[in-house]
Amino acid sequence: MNRLGLFLLLIGCLAAAALSVAAGKVWVPLDAWTAADPRSIIIVELRLPRTVLALTIGAALGLSGAVMQGYLRNPLADPGLLGVSPGAAFGAVMSLYFGYAAQAWLLPIFALAGAATAMALLALIAGRSASLVLFTLAGLVITNIAGSLTALAISLAPTPFVASEIITWLNGALTDRSWDDVKLALPLALAGAAILATTARSLDALTLGEGAARSMGVDPRRLQAAVIAGTALTVGASVAAAGVIGFIGLMVPHLVRPFAGNRPGAILLPSALGGALLLTLADAMVRIAPTVSELRLGIVMSMLGGPFFLALLLRMRKGLA
Amino acid sequence: MSLSVETLAVTIGDKRLLNEVSVAFASGHVTAILGPNGAGKSTLMACLAGLMQPTGGRVLLDDRPRGDFERRDLARRVGYLPQEADVHWNVDVATLVGLGRFPHRGRWGETPEDRDAVTRAMAATDVGGFAKRGVSTLSGGERARVLLARVLAGEPDWLLADEPLANLDPAHQLDGLDALRRVAAAGAGVIVVLHDLNHAARVADDVLLLRDGRVVAFGPPDQVLTRDLVAATYGVDTHVGVAPGGRRFLIPTERLA
After folding, report:
1. Can you tell me the ipTM of this complex?
2. Are B211 and B232 in contact (CB under 8 A)?
3. What parts of the sequence cross the membrane (chain A) (predicted)?
């Protein structure tokens, strides 16, 4: 993608961030935090961490989606496909199920443990062969297992309250997040992003298929390790801080791909910026929308993502026919 | 520059895909690998390209075992054109050919040498006219040339091509054979898996016949593409003739019991 495109995306992110800080049930002008304005606490303690989280998680999900699609050479791939995000969600659900959520710091630890377990399982099943097909199938199996275990936890929930709490968690949101959540998610997401950024050139080589890429000097095991670790960190951190927010990783790479000449390595940075922009904007919108209670961000993204996925499928079918 | 295999063996389970294969390939030559389905042609190519570890014997590059070389160094010396011609993303032709510079590229992106090599490769395969087109808009013949240009852009000492002429019409097959000849004439060693005996007769300096993972014969086409050796390799009787211009041709006539 050219510099102008990246610049526009960056401007978009800043504008969305400004909107996100100002928007809500109470509109707060951006200069309120400089004065000894009582509303400054809304900005500094509520809106700002929420905005930083939206930017972080959006970027993490967009980037990991772009890497997954490039790695699996499958335009329908999404971090969820790997099983990492469902694994993280199941971890979080377990902490809710056992009532540990009362301790705020336990839920993130459970979510990260879930992501790490899913990652370790993947490495165990698919690690030695490093074949893409096996890797994808292993991811699908883990997704299914995590999903059914989560469903089991819901149906066995000791009280209706726990069940509703779990369901609420599964529909991710950024409501009432604090700087503590930022402190947890940001460093992990940054570490994951740094690892994912190293895969760019290998993803380009994979355009020609696994054999050609290996013959050009791509080390398949190192690439797979980087993809697993980077995805687990970015997605695990995101789920820990906000629950499950789907489809960002699917949608954003498609939206930026034509502007980057379809080269998989060239869409990583635009996908991160685009993800940040999309999620921050969507999070501002759920606060602005004139509903009685705030719309759940995860539900809104699914409602956007479902039709997008369908349109994508129909377009691909036309291309194949 | 030398590339050879010594007593190469590949065994998967109790199946022997390659058995005691020893061949020294010549640079500046086109070596055609022929044999029936399951003879071990692609397995041999995979060993040469480093995609498969032999269970016995070794692959020597410049008289050193393959494993002694760094991954990147190997990739610069040996270019591999796989049988699958899939291009997974609709990048433009120039970008795709540029991927061939992957083993040469430094940390800081494209150098003038990279650009020159890409330009030369595109000229050699005559794809410069559609450098900006997306790969998905190309015809089969155009795509085959672009994929060959990708390998040539890496300027390898050795070009390994696994059935590069499959799915091409006769005119494009002749173009492909001529392109391989030019690569060899420029000094590189070309090793190509072919299915058509006549293609081998046309293009090859050396022919390697494989059957059941073993070498049946290795040598110049007029010594190897004979009625007896073809019968021993494929189990078919052939009519061998000489076309006007002195080139030999082979027509399989019937299956031998």
Report:
1. 0.89
2. yes
3. 48-68, 80-99, 105-125, 132-154, 223-252, 264-285, 297-316
